[in-house]
Amino acid sequence: MEHLSKDDAIWLMETYAPMRGNQISVENFKVFLKAYNLMKNTNRKMGCFTCEARQVTKMTTSYFEQYEEVIKAIAYPPKKRGRKKKDV
Known about the structure:
mainly alpha
């Protein structure tokens, strides 16, 4: 997931993640395809919603579930807590 930018990871968490359990339709398939392309670092294109598209949505969901913690870490990196230096 080294290729994934912070903005892309945020998009996956805020746009794609809430849609995962929804029924797949022609309208929301574009979101699944974009998520697939972001996670796989590809530019796959599909002209229509077919049986192959259903397989892509299943693969996208599976891939997201495998790497969800990594994507969260990229999207929302932990804040560093350091000691403040005192003025002398």
